[in-house]
Specification:
This protein has 4 helices and 4 strands; from the N terminus they run E-H-H-E-E-H-H-E. The chain is 30% helix and 29% strand. Strands 2-3-1-4 form a 4-stranded antiparallel β-sheet. It has one domain (5-103): Alpha-Beta Plaits, CATH 3.30.70.100.
Length: 115
């Protein structure tokens, strides 16, 4: 069964900072894409479409990692920690709000013992 981790990291920039935040996030791509266990690491921006009318954060990272170990190693890299401290936690950062979630492609309790 797959051990892949799917991460959706969503960001809302402070007023007037959308393009600047997008560029900062794009700068994280090259090093992250070279990490062991990175399958996909791509920053995207929300666009309007008549067939997808849901609400969303304006900027979203779409990530796929080989496994939990690879994802957690990525999260602890200095470049990633510094981004969150500088732009998400600090008062003068570019981010107004953010939400990072991880997902599995396995059903719940897929590896539980059969009774």
């Amino acid at each position: 069964m797959s051990q892949k981790i799917y991460c959706i990291a969503m960001f809302k920039a402070k007023a007037g900072k959308n393009n600047e935040l997008f560029e900062v996030l794009q700068a994280l791509e090259p090093n992250s894409q070279r990490e062991d266990g990175c399958i996909q690491y791509l920053v995207t921006r929300h666009i309007k479409n008549d067939f997808a009318e849901g609400s969303s954060f304006p900027i979203v990272f779409n990530e796929i990692w080989r496994d939990k170990v690879a994802f957690e190693a990525h999260c602890q890299r200095k470049e990633i920690v510094d981004f969150f401290e500088t732009h998400c936690v600090a008062e003068n950062g570019l981010v107004e709000d953010y939400n990072v979630c991880v997902y599995s492609d396995q059903p719940e309790d897929y590896d539980a013992p059969q009774l």
